[in-house]
Fold Broad specificity phosphatase PhoE.
Amino acid sequence: MVTTTVHLMRHGEVHNPDGILYGRIPGYHLSERGHEMARRVASHLADPEAGRDITAVIASPLQRAQQTATPIAGALGLELGTDERLIEAGNHFEGMTFGVGDGSLKHPEHWRYLWNPMRPSWGEPYKDQVARMAAAVRSARDANAGHEVVLVSHQLPVWITRLSLEGRRLWHDPRKRQCSLASLTSLRFEDDRFVGLSYTEPVADLLPGAATTPGA
């Protein structure tokens, strides 16, 4: 029996002073704190005392994921790979602020996209996200069987993948996602069978709101 671990990592903090939903819009890069998160996770994963056996680092094509993955691949002496299937979920509200008041929800033309939160009606269906993420995980697992691999993606695709693997419903309260910036959702497989996962936050002290968080 071959044991393989696939680490699903969310990218680091993004420079987004206007607070918009950037989604798949190009040009959104890591903040200074986001770069520090990436460096810290790189050191965490490359720590020789941890005894990890990471043989591949693969990222979403979006800039924030590539910037998060680059120091990890460098610390491990690996070439960074890219997989389009790890990309952020599509969303009608890309480029807008989301909310009442001055947000996009005060405009009636957007209300028709909110009719079905279980699909969801405002963006890429959850089932489609699961399908592409599951395919990316399988590819990485099979190509690195018996080792570990890091896949750098985005909060919603990572969380939806976890919900699917745990047999939970896909529609959910976004405020209750356990998938913080630069976190690791580590999937364990025996051959091609999913046997469990663990969740870690290597940069918990850098997260917004943490007591020791430095200025971004």
Observations:
- The domain at 3-206 is CATH 3.40.50.1240 (Rossmann fold).
